[in-house]
Amino acid sequence: MTVQRSRIQRKNREAILEAALEVFSAHGFRGATVDQIAEVAGLSKPNLLYYFPSKEAVHRTLLTGLLDSWLDPLRAMNPDGEPVEEMLSYVRRKLDLSRDYPRESRLFANEILQGGPRIREALEGDLKRLVDEKAALLGRWMDQGRIARVDPVHLIFSVWSLTQHYADFDFQVRAVLGPGHDPFAEAGAFLDTLFRRLLTPPGR
Questions:
Q1: Three-class SS of residue 28?
Q2: Contact 191, 163 (CB under 8 A)
Q3: What is the Cα–Cα distance from 47 to 101, expressed in whole angstroms?
Q4: What domains does the chain contain, in order, with CATH numbers?
Q5: How far apart are CA 4 and CA 54, in angstroms?
């Protein structure tokens, strides 16, 4: 009985988070309600509140998991790899995340546009520490002449903006490109060329 109850609880929790992702990504934090999330999850409001005491708690759980996933591609940058290829792999991983998880990207963007009140601690903690670490690695590669010298932190910012744009502004991208285009395939080829030219040291 305990195993069955745990399975049901896990299933309900997953259903709530999936529903919350749908509602938050469509309406933002302020426009979303517990009633909407419960309806999409197929649960009653009291049942939802059994698992999460508030809308804020659901939102914070989603954001915490999302930020961890969002950092994985940067964590995967290998200090022992070939620098240009490591950066290009990072760009591809970030673009794949935008393609495969557009709702998560829009949820994160909405939170940042509101000033990040529910994720500020993580941004100023885990995110900043990882960016500082990888910026230092990029700086070492630049000092060694293995990649062209650019501002390493703004390089990382540029990867974020140029990849997440395709999720956050999907409707605009598809409207401008028109039918018959694969935005992410085309973006992948373009970004590979862009960053390869930017990062290849002069003379190579």
A1: helix
A2: yes
A3: 27
A4: 1-53 (1.10.10.60), 62-199 (1.10.357.10)
A5: 26
pLDDT tens profile 109-165: 888 888 888 888 888 888 999 999 999 999 999 999 999 999 999 999 999 999 999
* CA pair distance 154, 7, nearest whole angstrom: 45
Look at the block and give the residue holding tokens 């999330």.
37
Distances (CA, A) of 20 to 45, 59, 146, 163: 13, 7, 44, 24
Yes or no: say if 147 and 82 are a contact pair by the CB < 8 Å rule. no
Q: Could you tell me if residue 116 is left (phi over 0), alpha (psi between -120 and 50 degrees) or otherwise beta?
A: left
CA neighbor of 141 nearest in space, from 129, 131, 150, 128: 150
Of 117, 116, 119, 107, whose CA–CA distance to 167 is shortest? Answer: 107
pLDDT given for residue 5 in this prediction: 62
- The DSSP secondary-structure symbol of 145 reads T
Kindly report, residue by residue over 58-76, the tens digit of the pLDDT. Answer: 998 888 888 888 889 999 9
Whole-angstrom Cα distance, residue 141 to residue 165? Answer: 27
Q: What is the pTM of this model?
A: 0.84
The one-character DSSP state at 202 is T
Say how many C-beta atoms besides its own lie within 10 A of residue 198's C-beta.
14
The per-type count for the chain, helices as H runs and strands as E runs, is 11, 0
